Predict the structure.
Amino acid sequence: MGKKLSYILSLTLLFLVIAWQCRQANQKYNQTEHQGGVIRLGLTGNITELFPLTLTEYNAQNISRYLLHPALVELQPGGEVIVGIARGWYRQDSTVVHVYLNPLVHWSNGSTLTAWDIVSTVDFIRRQAPQLNRTFRDFDQITASAEDSFHVVFNKPAGIHEGLLSVIPILPRTLIEHFGSHPDSLRLAYNRELPSYGPFVVSGKSATELQFRRNPWYQIQPVQPDSLFFHLYSGMDSLTADLVLEKLHFVVDYPADRLGRIVPGQQPYLVETSPEDGFTGLAWNLGDELLKRRELRLALSLAANRQAFVDGIFGGYATIHDSPLPPGHPAALKDKIRAFDPEKSARILDALGFDLKKNIRYHDRKALTFELIYNEENREREQIARNLQINLRHIGVNLIVSALPWETYLQRLGSGQYQIALLSWAASPGYGLAELFHSGSIGTGLNFMQYRNPRLDALLDMLARDGQPAAEVSQLAEVQSIISQDLPVTVLFSQQRIFLKHKNLHHVNLNQGAFFPGIRNWQITDQEK
């Protein structure tokens, strides 16, 4: 009897131990998989609105795209197409694509996202506001086949159908029906309601902070963070002060010259880098009477000491190149880099008739003067502008630098009321160099330079139409050669984006400088929640 009782007690104890271990494992699983914590991110600059059809600021575009309005399909860095919120698609022929929606996709109010939402959104853009988003210019017709399917007809054969499908920002049909009579009224209504079908919904918004919480209706993939707080800073001093106090878990685009304040092993932050998929450069207004002269643009370009910019401003976290595609791109040109050569620059200016008197060059008896504009929130651009000002002074050219609020900066660019602009460009899914250099992008896209080259237009159209990887590299080589020769922009360098990550922040995956696509997987360990 004693042995039997002892056996029963042993079994009972074993059962209790196993049950306790299972409970602990289950608690750990729930904490790890379902309690990603409250994650705080630091950004510099302003995000004044989130209306997806008018966003121009890079971080705002990506917040909208990955947190609130995921794409129908996703383009991977190697060109592979995978489903996003769509459950499938197929090409009927070279101009028609059928798309099927995932029935699990819901708006943040619980209603199902339907094909009618997508049709209404695209029809609104095409009919009422084509100036808002040039991405849709290649759509000829979009028709709903049923509540969960639609087909699009492209106005020309294109090899970038999936690219276009990857950037559609969808709005609720009801919102368009009530407020879509004018773009401004729709934008105001959107910013008031802030609908989402993505992994997060907006829970708070101010001039200094954007708050997001997990969307309870998002069922496509697991979402780990309970909430996200984007803290918006006007400058790096206040951001760095919060870093010292450990108020942030992740910081975007931290300046290289401040990295000395973040010492690995002594601070709780790790330094992560990722190459940007684009370039920083000088945009020349080719409508300007002087700057339309290519030799003058070349002279000013040769006077820019790019290596000093990279070393002094970016601490070496940037790569100098001349072609518009960055060095990491498979089709990037491997040509010899144009050297810093102020002596050659001076000889060109002499030959163009800009006389040098007492270290100042003159044109029509006036000092040779240009204005450079840039957005005021970006400290690194200010440093580039000031360094370029010194470079040009050495060849007798006076450069006025103007720091402008973001909206004013964009307005000056779009209206052509500038001479030189300091800008950064990043390739976007579905379209790339055409948005900046195709003549069709003048006035409707990003061709602020008013640049026209018929041969380049034909090549860019061919790339959009064919989309064949084998031919693409050779075509892109010619495209880049034309742009480098014509100099509508002077490419300065491509940056290595610098991020600071708290040591207790996990599952952060940086891909071509983009952290937004994977943010739904992030987790903070318990002590940091």
